[in-house]
Amino acid sequence: MQPADIARSYDEIAHQWLEPHLETNGMRQHEHALRFRKQQGGGRALDVGCGCHGRFIRLLSQHGYAVEGLDISARMIELARQRHPGVTFHHVDVCQWEPEGAYDFITAWDSIWHLPLVQSAEVITRLCGALAPGGILIFTLGGLDEPGEKQDSSMGPPMHYSTPGIPQTLQVLASAGCILRHLEYDQHPEMHVFVIAQKS
């Protein structure tokens, strides 16, 4: 599946991401990531694959960040703009996105793992490159030792998932000038991993 196919799948189920039970999903992990910039605080932030819920946008705003959202799903962006009219949203494929200026905090929670495997490393490198010195990147990936990808319909419409694997991900981060600050299997025994990296 290509990113445009993922966009169509998420367009179909965008409303599901408004459900109240998502309010706490990923929040503990983001609070932890924010501690690595606690002394600096604030700045520019970007939510990659922001969806329509807005919980990370609210959290980052509460910590003094000017937040932007980015998503490939037109329906997600439409709903997000309705819920957060004062926020700038970018309807764009992250594989084609070119950042304007640097960000102090970037989150890509449960989003970039939908990319074709051949584009994963490039996008992680681009996100690292969009960080200001000392900036934080938090993202999720499949916690495998080797690269892998799969497709399923567990959410209804077909979805594609890929992971460069933990060893390659760490190499990509280091090559992009970022230092690993935290890696955790936060839903073990599920292979859901979140990573916090900081631009050196």
UniProtKB/TrEMBL annotation:
Pfam families: Methyltransf_23 (PF13489). Keywords: Methyltransferase, Transferase. InterPro entries: SAM-dependent_MTases_sf (IPR029063). One of its GO terms (molecular function) is methyltransferase activity. The keyword Ion transport does not apply. CDD domains: AdoMet_MTases. Gene3D superfamilies: Vaccinia Virus protein VP39. GO terms for biological process: methylation. This is 2-polyprenyl-3-methyl-5-hydroxy-6-metoxy-1, 4-benzoquinol methylase. It comes from Prosthecobacter vanneervenii.
